[in-house]
TrEMBL record:
Tagged with keyword Electron transport: yes
Keywords carried by this UniProt record: Copper, Electron transport, Metal-binding, Signal, Transport
Domain of life: Bacteria
Residues of the signal peptide: 1-18
Annotated source species: Dyadobacter jejuensis
Database matches in PROSITE patterns: COPPER_BLUE (PS00196)
Protein's name according to its UniProt entry: Azurin
PANTHER family referenced in this protein's UniProt entry, alphabetically: AURACYANIN-B, OUTER MEMBRANE PROTEIN H.8
Length: 165
């Protein structure tokens, strides 16, 4: 009888230890949206663009001055010459259609117009299907900013709001 009780106690202890380890693993995994970058907690954002000219995120929220690590993945299959995607965060007040028109003429610079670099906070490389690019930047002051894909004609559908609180 004593062996049976000891065995049950050991089994219960092992189950409790396993549950504690699983709870710790769940806690570690639940914090996967932030990481330490240059001594500060960074907001990690993953966004996808598709061959249907859509971003999977229409709104992104961060804190003013926060480090941001953004990964853009082109989830489609088409080449960047036919359906390239990038992620461009524009400063407040930028005329998006005017920027998009200038971007369409900037093929040699992956549709980032050199005359408009002062209008851009951050941007990724131009990607083809299956490619990805990760950038890091510091969130600007509080406000609402527009992000777009600057490939010709995409800005009308591929856009979203970057909210800085």
């Amino acid at each position: 009888m004593k062996k049976l009780i000891t065995g049950m106690f050991l089994s219960a202890s092992m189950i409790a230890l396993a549950a504690t380890n699983m709870a710790h693993a769940a806690f570690v995994n639940s914090s996967a949206t932030t990481e330490l970058v240059d001594g500060k907690q960074a907001k990690v954002i993953e966004i996808k663009g598709t061959d249907a000219m859509q971003f999977d995120l229409k709104e992104i929220k961060v804190k003013a001055g926060q480090k941001v690590k953004l990964k853009l993945t082109h989830a489609g299959k088409l080449a960047k010459t036919a359906m390239g995607h990038n992620w461009v965060l524009l400063k407040e007040g930028v005329d998006v259609p005017a920027f998009g028109s200038k971007a369409a003429a900037a093929r040699d610079n992956e549709y980032i117009p050199k005359s408009e670099v002062g209008s851009i906070i951050a941007h990724t490389k131009l990607l083809g299907g299956g490619e990805s690019d990760t950038i890091e930047f510091t969130a600007p002051k509080k406000g609402k900013y527009t992000y777009i894909c600057s490939f010709p004609g995409h800005y009308a559908l591929m856009k979203g709001t970057f909210i800085v609180e």
